[in-house]
Amino acid sequence: EVYNNVLKKLLLGGEGRSINNTWTAGQSETVDITWTIDVEIFDPTNLYLVAFVQNKSSREVYGTVQKKAQNQDESIVTGIGEEVMEQARSISIYPNPAIGKVNFLIEDIALSDYTWQIVDQRGIVVLKGELDFNSLGVYSVSTEELRNGVYYVIIEAENKPLIYRKLAVMNRR
């Protein structure tokens, strides 16, 4: 079966957020919220956020808006030297899919103190550390404690994310 437009979670709970206002046609309001997607997402490239204004008593919906969620892809970061950025892009991550461990490979002497994070599809950091390359330019991380699935590897320098890469984990158990 194929399901389209599946609601995964009400990010603000069943009650949402109350705004005491008398709404008029065309009126808008910006609301800052902090939220975490803590449910499994099958295809994060197809994730949308939907917001709506609803009368709490009558349950009548006055208006809705839909916005595509930001993809976690490689991005350009300002404030980091271009050499550091280029070197970070050249760091190889293998094998992919990872079975028991994942390796980071750098061809040159590291130009920065790089750190790494493995983040699940909910945005939760499940593993992290510093890239401490050996004399062959390899650093290994055990993935045995991770559940099978797709994760994001984030490589950072100076507390700024430089690259995002997808990593599949296929620990056979």
Describe it.
With 173 residues, the chain is mainly beta. Helix content is 5%, strand content 34%. It is built from one helix and nine strands. The chain has one helix at 82-90, and strands at 48-54, 61-68, 92-94, 101-105, 114-119, 125-130, 138-142, 149-157, 160-169. The strands form three sheets. The chain has a four-stranded antiparallel sheet, covered by helices on one side. A three-stranded antiparallel sheet has the order 3-4-7, with no helix packed on it. Strand 3 (92-94) and strand 4 form a beta hairpin. The longest helix has 9 residues, at 82-90. It starts with 47 loop residues before the first strand and ends with a strand.
Order of helices and strands: EEHEEEEEEE
User: By helix and strand content, what is the structural category?
Assistant: mainly beta
Helix content: under 10%
Q: What strand order characterises the main sheet?
A: 6-5-8-9
Low-pLDDT parts are 73-77
- Which outline best applies? elongated
Strand content: 25-35%
Rounded to the nearest angstrom, the distance between the terminal CA atoms is 28 Å
Tally of separate helices? 1
Largest sheet data: 4 strands, antiparallel
- Over all CA atoms, what is the radius of gyration? 21 Å
Give the mean pLDDT: 83
- Quantity of strands, as a count: 9
Give a quick set of tags describing it:
9 strands; 173 residues; single chain; three-stranded antiparallel sheet; four-stranded antiparallel sheet
Q: In a nutshell, what does this entry contain?
A:
This protein has 173 residues and is mainly beta. 5% of the residues lie in helices and 34% in strands.
